[in-house]
């Protein structure tokens, strides 16, 4: 018996616990679906979803196969997320260094960041259209705040003696940001990228439910109109899988960064 | 010339009225190319003094001048060796030393030459591409010293630079510093808790009172060192056995002891 609930759990045991949780979830779902209490059109059974999923891998629905929908979603995602990182990280670092910029940007930023990405849909469609621009803007609005915030925090919490050492070495603002604040903030920035990646992926699918003519979200909307609940759930499964893969990749990146820095 | 002058320096931390008076009228003049060590009880304001010369802090009243100019902010003219090393963990040994030279705009060829010189001098050859976390504390401190020396500063500020080292490494570093400062003398302000270290290295030793700190007494070591030719001894322990050294040490210890006694600690 495990006596202390806070005791660390060995890796293989924790994998086992994860597997138990996963199969318990599948079992519960199957049980409810098979019991007949809930109509199948309300809640498709796992095996029906699996069937539909494999079918969609090679057959088109709403114009494309599932991998094609995913590719189109991922393309938009990569651009929106990339844009958020490329603009957000330098902005956050500069806010961490220049007080006047911090004072100027922070109030506006704090007000805007509480607006859910989905709330931008009308303007995204109006300004950038429903093709690629609109969804990119929505992903951007989801991924941008964590990029800015974590770069800013990283820059603000750099150890004081490192900044003083750099000042004593005659470092001016540009190099202070690129060669001191940026590398010192990498762990915080990477943590922010992980959060941004998750929020970006979530807002992408939200956006596609409304504006887009391809992508997983679009496929799910079309599934809904065709009263094909299995298509909708297959889309959810695909979203979950890609989300997990993105997080695994970024976690590996984070570990690599920490190891290179001698933090682990 | 690059002397340092403290004139009636007061430093109060916290708010007007109910602040903590840390320094209360520090007067000290360090001549060009003079090596002055400050000793004093913990918390008496030694680091505060050094930070004001570095330009990281300012006096509440009074003035700190270098070269007869009031210190306005940090500058590579006044290099600092921090007690916590303060090396950039993401830069290797070479790049840590190179950073200040690049900021100064020293041309690549000269930069390489200068860095190679100090790497050799500090016994760091072969470790150019090592990162700070791969080095021992003593080696990190040598990188920090090389980084400061490579700037070719007019003033060198060292805050307990050997405090974190083991006894053996410390002795080696002290002997190296003596060698360096006799070959290439600079204006040095050196803070330490080690009375022996202060006498061995410095031209003059300034003793501070407990907080609020003032300079209580200045012990002039240089005349004795020169007349007895201490520098003929390569090893610190040979100097430490000389009667004149022992005499100075006892004197400074007594003076410090009085400060501790009053504190009641
Ligand atoms: N930024 C600050 N804010 C408030 N008080 C401070 C600050 N810096 C230093 N002090 C106070 O000033 C006093 C002197 O500090 P300082 O670091 O100069 O002492 P020190 O002589 O270097 O001590 P030590 O030998 O322990 O290093 C201390 O009592 C400290 O608490
Ligand atoms: Mg101190």
Give the end-to-end Cα distance of chain A, rounded to a whole number of Å: 31 Å
CATH T-level topology of chain A: MetI-like fold
In N-to-C order, the SSE pattern of chain A is HHHHHHHHH
Total of DSSP H or I helical runs spanning 4+ residues of chain A: 9
Q: How many alpha or pi helices of chain B?
A: 9
Write down the overall geometry of chain B: globular
Q: What is the structural class of chain A? A: mainly alpha
Shape of chain A: globular
Major sheet characteristics of chain A: none
Oligomeric state: heterodimer
Return the average pLDDT of chain A rounded to an integer.
88
Radius of gyration of chain A: 23 Å
Query: How many strand units of chain B?
Result: 10
Please identify the structural class of chain B as seen in this structure. alpha/beta
Q: Report on the biggest sheet of chain B.
A: 6 strands, mixed
Could you tell me the CATH topology label of the largest domain in chain B.
Rossmann fold
Q: Give the fraction of residues assigned to helices of chain A.
A: over 70%
Which strand order does the major sheet of chain B show?
6-7-8-3-9-10
Query: How far is the first residue's CA from the last residue's CA of chain B?
Result: 42 Å
Tell me what you see in this structure.
The relative contact order of chain A is 0.12. Chain A has one domain (66-260): MetI-like (MetI-like fold, Orthogonal Bundle). Chain A has helices spanning 11-35, 46-58, 66-97, 99-112, 121-156, 160-168, 173-210, 216-225, 229-260. Chain A has 264 residues and is an all-alpha fold. With 265 residues, chain B is α/β, with parallel strands linked by helices. In chain B, the strands form two sheets. Chain B has a six-stranded mixed beta sheet, with helices on both faces. In chain B, strands 2-1-4-5 form a four-stranded antiparallel beta sheet, with helices on one face. In chain B, a hairpin with a 6-residue loop joins strand 1 (4-13) and strand 2. Chain B is globular and about 50 Å long. Classes of the chains: A mainly alpha (264), B alpha/beta (265). Chain A binds chain B through residues 159, 161-162, 164-172, 175, 179-180, 183-184, 186, 261-262, and chain B through 54-56, 73-76, 78-80, 82, 84, 86-91, 99-100, 103-104, 131, 133-134, 147, 151. The structure holds adenosine-5'-triphosphate and magnesium ion (MG). Residues 13, 20, 22, 40, 42-48, 211 of chain B line the site of adenosine-5'-triphosphate (ATP).
């Amino acid at each position: 018996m495990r006596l202390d609930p806070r005791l660390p759990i060995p890796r293989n045991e924790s994998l086992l616990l994860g597997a138990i949780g996963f199969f318990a979830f599948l079992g519960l779902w199957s049980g409810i679906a098979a019991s007949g209490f809930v109509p199948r059109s309300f809640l498709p059974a796992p095996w029906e979803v699996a069937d539909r999923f494999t079918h969609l891998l090679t057959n088109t629905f709403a114009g494309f196969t599932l991998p094609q929908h995913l590719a189109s979603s991922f393309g938009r995602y990569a651009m929106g997320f990339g844009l958020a990182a490329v603009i957000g990280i330098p902005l956050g670092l500069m806010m961490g260094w220049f007080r006047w910029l911090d004072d100027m940007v922070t109030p506006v930023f704090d007000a805007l960041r509480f607006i859910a990405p989905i709330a931008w849909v009308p303007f995204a469609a109006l300004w950038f259209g429903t093709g690629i621009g609109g969804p990119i803007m929505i992903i951007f609005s989801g991924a941008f705040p964590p990029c800015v915030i974590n770069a800013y925090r990283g820059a603000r919490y750099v150890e004081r003696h490192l900044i003083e050492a750099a000042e004593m070495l005659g470092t001016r603002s540009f190099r202070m940001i690129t060669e001191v604040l940026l590398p010192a903030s990498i762990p915080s920035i990477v943590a922010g990228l992980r959060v941004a990646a998750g929020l970006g992926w979530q807002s992408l699918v939200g956006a596609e439910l409304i504006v887009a003519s391809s992508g997983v979200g679009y496929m799910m909307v079309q599934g809904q109109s065709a009263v094909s609940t299995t298509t909708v759930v297959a889309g959810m499964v695909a979203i979950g899988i890609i989300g997990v893969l993105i997080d695994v990749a970024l976690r590996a990146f984070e570990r690599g960064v920490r190891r290179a820095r001698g933090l682990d | 010339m690059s002397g340092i002058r403290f004139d009636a320096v007061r430093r109060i931390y916290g708010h007007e009225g109910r602040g903590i008076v840390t320094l209360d009228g520090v007067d000290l003049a360090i001549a060009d190319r003079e090596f002055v060590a400050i000793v004093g009880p913990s918390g008496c304001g030694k680091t505060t003094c050094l930070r004001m010369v570095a330009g990281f802090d300012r006096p509440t009243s009074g003035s700190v001048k270098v070269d007869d100019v009031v210190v306005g902010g940090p500058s590579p003219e006044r290099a600092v060796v921090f007690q916590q090393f303060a090396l950039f963990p993401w830069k290797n040994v070479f790049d840590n030393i190179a950073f200040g030279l690049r900021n100064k705009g020293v041309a690549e060829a000269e930069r390489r030459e200068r860095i190679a010189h100090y790497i050799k001098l500090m016994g760091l050859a072969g470790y150019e591409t090592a990162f700070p976390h791969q080095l021992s504390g003593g080696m990190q401190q040598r990188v920090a010293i090389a980084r400061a020396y490579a700037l070719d500063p007019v003033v060198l500020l060292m805050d307990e630079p050997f405090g974190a080292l083991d006894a053996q490494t410390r002795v080696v570093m002290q002997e190296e510093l003596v060698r360096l400062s006799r070959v290439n003398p600079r204006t040095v302000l050196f803070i330490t808790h080690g009375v022996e270290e202060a006498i061995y290295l410095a031209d003059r030793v300034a003793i501070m009172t407990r907080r609020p700190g003032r300079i209580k007494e200045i012990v002039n070591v240089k005349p004795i060192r020169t007349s007895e030719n201490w520098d003929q001894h390569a090893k610190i322990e040979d100097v430490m056995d000389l009667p004149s050294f022992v005499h100075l040490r006892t004197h400074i210890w007594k003076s410090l002891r009085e400060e501790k006694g009053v504190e009641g600690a």
